[in-house]
Amino acid sequence: MAIKDVKKVVLAYSGGLDTSVILRWLQQSYGCEVVTFTADLGQGEELEPARKKAELFGVKEIFVDDLRDTFVRDFVFPMFRANTLYEGQYLLGTSIARPLIAQRQIEIAEMVGADAVAHGATGKGNDQVRFELSYYALKPDVKVIAPWREWDLTSRTKLLEFAEKNQIPVARDKRGEAPFSVDANLLHSSSEGKLLEDPAVAPDEIVFQRTISPEAAPDVATEISIDFHQGDAVAIDGEAMGPAALLTKLNALGRANGIGRLDLVENRFVGMKSRGIYETPGGTILLAAHRTMETITLDREAGHLKDSLMPRYAALIYNGFWFSPERRMLQALIDASQASVTGRVRLKLYKGNVIATGRESPNSLYDTRVVTFEDDQGAYDQIDAQGFIKLNALRLRLGAAVGRKGGAL
């Protein structure tokens, strides 16, 4: 891409060392106007310093947007309707945030007349893929600048030298080598790298930021209820809450009970294995509650079909295909399945565990007249089971008969 091709770029900007260096580098290398965009996704950090830092660089158009409710309502909740887990364990806290950031970046680019967008993801990770697939899906002709794939600032030392040379303020406590990197939002925190790179070594307690250890959790269980409406959580202990407030409350409950820790070696889309320490306290509770609600409100085959599609859906999110037609198609099926998923779930939270203790719904398919061990008064005719079993056994009996004559399986 020729430098003259870019006149204005929207940068996903956190105000940290990396993106501050990127901001100045863009101004110098591309000679273009830089617009900064900082998203509040509930990462728990003060974001106004990012605005002030951007002003120091002479940035005229600065966006600091509170997207917490949008994040939970339009991204987290749709994902949880599918009970989504990547590789059977990961609740996709980082993955699901990237399409929202990219979406808002493109909206800002259209608003301010920018011809390019830029991100701070490295050339080794998944985030570069997630950002850029989203950009291109939303604005096919957009120019994308990925500094980590272009510049020669290949170490933290070089970044600090560039910062010092260009009078970029760096907090004294940020000058040393970080023991691991952290990404956080309202759904989770993710820690990886450096101290955590050897998967044989257990993480030190200093790594955990969102949860206390299960051993340190109270010796008495916390009992709660969660209300659902068409697949989405809407209230805790009978108190209606907005999406972000509800997840914030679940996070606090999960934190206090040591819930949601995960030490995972996962398969990155770019081809390598990576070890990460994830903390998803509220999400872990929400997943257990949602699955419990579905057990009495979803038809058996509908539920099994949905479960069979979940790994594919999870991989699409993990790999950055949130805006793909196939993800949208799967979402339509998943959302249709949730029409009856309304009711209340009761849970106990105890030392890292989420234990379902009750579930009720106006749409419940659980019929005590049919399942009772007492007299069902004709609701279920047990003699019907004989024909059912014989029909299902027919192929087994035929196969066994052939087998006795020396036939193949």
Report on this model:
The structure is a single chain. By secondary structure, the chain is α/β, with parallel strands linked by helices. The protein has 3 domains: 3-69 and 93-177, 3-Layer(aba) Sandwich (Rossmann fold); 182-298 and 341-360, Argininosuccinate synthetase, chain A, domain 2 (Alpha-Beta Complex), CATH 3.90.1260.10; 371-400, no CATH class. Helices cover 39% and strands 19% of the residues. The protein has 12 helices and 14 strands. Helix 7 (243-256) crosses helix 8. The chain is elongated and about 85 Å long. The termini are far apart.
Query: What is the 3D shape?
Result: elongated
Structural class comes to alpha/beta
Instruction: Report the top-level CATH class of the largest domain.
Output: Alpha Beta
CATH topology of the largest domain: Rossmann fold
- Looking at the overall shape, the CATH architecture of the largest domain is 3-Layer(aba) Sandwich
Sketch the topology as an H/E string, one letter per element: EHEHEHHEHEHEEEEEHEEHHHEEHH
Number of domains: 3
How many alpha or pi helices? 12
Low-pLDDT residue intervals, each spanning 5 or more residues: none
